[in-house]
Design goal:
Layout lengths: L1 H13 L2 E6 L1 E2 L11 E11 L2 E5 L4 E6 L6 E2 L4 E5 L2 H44 L4 H40 L2 E3 L4 E6 L6 E2 L14 E6 L4 E8 L11 E6 L2 E18 L4 E8 L11 E7 L2 H10 L11 E4 L4 E3 L2 E8 L2 E6 L1 E6 L2 E6 L6 E4 L9 E2 L1 E2 L3
Parallel strand pairs: 1-25
Antiparallel strand pairs: 1-23, 2-17, 3-12, 3-16, 4-11, 5-7, 5-10, 6-9, 7-8, 9-11, 12-15, 13-14, 13-16, 14-15, 17-22, 18-19, 19-20, 19-23, 20-24, 21-22
Length: 387
């Protein structure tokens, strides 16, 4: 009784150690699809439309009407700079207009009087009653008065222009939202001095930005793809987006843009993927993973070309590509049962990145050997590493 047990123990201890994996049945996470994945990339959620809102002129901030998370409408005043001096300039410009208008009224009255005097002198000259000198003097006075009216009219136009300039300067002390959005970053406080060119030593407000707003209705993932993988992508390709913070939730996406230039230092190309069904959980700057997929038409054509591939994604069995070897033109795997490795022929479907679909030969839950030795015989004893 003892000898057979010892022999069996020795045989087991002499069996080769192998790495294993389990064949799994494809199950889609909530909102996920069973479409064929092409490429996986990681990146960050960004708003397609975002802006660093800044000031047009330098000054001290008098009021702020927002905090992080505040919704703003296009044209809404978000902040105002101190502007007492500009208001004084505007008031002075308005009074200059009134003064110019009064001077114009005086000039018009003087011109009308000189014109009437000229007409009298001409009538007297026709009757031979006045002298040529008097007529000439009347003509000169009328011409001067007309010129003074023209000058007064120009002074009014200039004064009104100064009013416009002062009013525009006053308006420039207001910071307005360029579009509807949400404040995602507050960069200044009341009492701080800001400038269109930034404040030295305050890099967070470079360029005079006091806030960053974003349109959260159009969120997308900014990611980078290796140059070697760009050829796998095409315009409007479907994708699935998973946030690191919410691994169980899958969002639908679509490839919006492949940037027209690459980064020669990193050998990467930037790609933008629009999140089609973003909800309140999706926030800018979150870490996200994107799985690019072949479209449904490609999947259908692939399915029709693959004999035996089940049309129902719920019956798809996956296992690592490392479990498959080729022997005499046949795909085979070694299935481990109670420490014994049995060679089994399998029929493969489509590749899924580092896994492959199995349409026949392996059932979900069965254990297969990874990177099986070429010399491993059928029905051989094996030891699982770590056990």
């Amino acid at each position: 009784m003892l000898y057979p047990r010892v022999r069996a123990y020795v045989a087991v201890r002499q069996a080769p150690e192998v790495d294993i994996a389990r064949a799994t049945q494809l199950t889609a996470a909530p909102g996920a699809s069973a479409a064929l994945p092409v490429l996986v990339a990681s990146g960050y959620v960004v708003a397609r439309h975002s802006s660093d809102v800044g000031v047009k002129t330098g000054g001290r901030i008098a009021t702020l009407t927002f905090e992080e998370g505040t919704r703003v409408r296009r044209g809404e005043v978000m902040a105002a700079l101190e502007h007492a001096d500009i208001e004084a300039q505007l008031e002075a410009a308005r009074r200059a207009v009134v003064e110019a208008e009064a001077q114009l009224a005086q000039a018009v009255a003087a011109r009308d009087e000189d014109v009437r005097n000229l007409e009298r002198q001409r009538a007297l000259a026709r009757d031979g009653i006045t002298t040529t000198a008097n007529l000439t003097a009347a003509e000169s006075a009328a011409a001067v008065s007309t010129a003074r009216v023209t000058s007064a009219e120009a002074a009014i136009a200039s004064a009104r222009a100064r009013v416009t300039v002062a009013a525009e300067a006053l308006e420039n002390t207001n910071v307005r939202a360029p579009f509807d959005g949400v404040v995602i970053k507050k960069r200044a406080e009341v009492g701080e001095t800001v400038s269109p060119f930034g404040v030295q030593g305050q890099a967070s407000r470079e360029g005079g930005a006091i806030a960053t707003i974003a349109d959260l209705h159009e969120l997308e993932v900014q990611t980078e793809v290796s140059e070697n993988s760009v050829a796998k992508l095409k315009s409007a390709m479907p994708a699935e987006v998973t946030l690191q913070a919410y691994q169980g939730q899958v969002y639908k996406g679509r490839l919006r843009q492949i940037f027209p230039s690459a980064d020669r230092a990193k050998s990467i190309v930037e790609v933008r993927v629009t999140i089609l069904n973003a909800d309140e959980h999706v926030k800018p700057e979150m870490t996200a993973s994107v799985t690019f997929e072949e479209d449904s038409q490609t999947d259908r054509s692939r399915a029709s070309m693959t004999p035996g591939q089940p049309p129902d994604a719920s019956r798809v069995v996956l296992m690592p590509k490392k479990a498959v070897t080729e022997q005499n033109g046949q795909s085979v795997v070694w299935v481990v049962t109670n420490g014994t490795a049995a060679k089994r022929a399998v029929t493969l479907g489509a590749d899924r990145i580092d896994q492959v679909e199995v349409t026949s030969g392996v059932l979900p839950g069965e254990t297969v050997i990874l990177n099986a030795p070429a010399t491993l015989p059928d029905r051989a004893l094996v030891r699982v590493k770590g056990s």
